[in-house]
Amino acid sequence: MKVHNIKMHVFKVICIAVKNHGHALAAQINIMQALQYHEHLSEPMAECLAHLAKDFDHAQLGEEILREIAGKTFNAQDTKGPRAFSRFLVKFCEESPRSVLKQISVLLGHLDSEVGRRPSLSHDHVLIIIALVVSHAYGYGRSNRAAYSRTLKR
Fold first, then answer.
1. What sign for the dihedral angle of Cα 72, 83, 126, 63?
2. Cα(68)–Cα(66) distance, rounded to whole angstroms?
3. What distance in Å separates the CA atoms of residue 15 and residue 90, rounded to the nearest whole number?
4. pTM
5. 47, 11 in Cβ contact below 8 A?
6. Cα separations (Å) of 22 from 17, 19, 37, 97, 110?
7. How much of the chain is in helix, strand and coil states, percent to nearest 5?
8. Residue 86 above 60 pLDDT?
9. Domain limits, the chain
10. Which of 77, 95, 149, 154 is deepest in the core (most CB within 10 A)?
11. In the predicted model, what is the mean pLDDT of residues 123-139?
């Protein structure tokens, strides 16, 4: 979604459907499937959920998706899935750190997992998420958060 105006209108349609017309469950299922099968949709889905939380005052869907991600396990052969979910979590934390802060305790289970025992999200990404939440708690601006995001590009 390269054109900002079109992206914002699509987000608005999704947000109105979720908030006013009871499409939260359908949106949750579709977002989880998009994250699982389409790696390029990680950041737009996070932006949409942050838009829903900020502009439509409906953070429940984002928090429910965070709980579902926290309970997710990945196959040892799956390399795209954990990477896509990690990118989603980092972007969602950048956009809506308060929602992630509420669910950080359930996300810490991915930090405890070992690569050989239970494939999970990247430890680096979980630590970046924690750093972003802490930086938000102490009031650092977006410029400091951008430094953490650049480490993902490596």
1. negative
2. 5
3. 21
4. 0.81
5. yes
6. 7, 6, 25, 25, 31
7. 75, 0, 25
8. yes
9. 4-152
10. 95
11. 76
